[in-house]
Every structure is written in structure tokens, then in C-alpha cells.
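User: Second chain of the day. Same drill as before.
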Amino acid sequence: MQTKNPLEFFRTLPPKQCPQCGNQITEQAESYLMECDHCLSKKDEY
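Assistant: Same format as last time:
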């Protein structure tokens, strides 16, 4: 079994989608957010 180049693996991952609204999330380095900015802004902060 041949191993893929790690860069190629990450390049071919599908874009992350918001589980609340289904919009594509624009990811940034070191960001682990699961919701898009729009859905995050609608949440109440405690």
C-alpha cells in the first residue's frame, strides 16, 4: 500500500461545513471552530 503525500492529503480534503446552516466555513490557521461566523454571532454568550 502506497502512502499519500501529507500535503496532497490536506489539499484534497473537502471544505468544512457549518452543521447549523450548511454554509462553507473559511478556515484559518489554528482555528478549531465548528460553526460559521454567522451562526456563532447568533449564539448567546454566558
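Residues 6-11 form the longest helix (6 residues).

User: Great, on to the next one.
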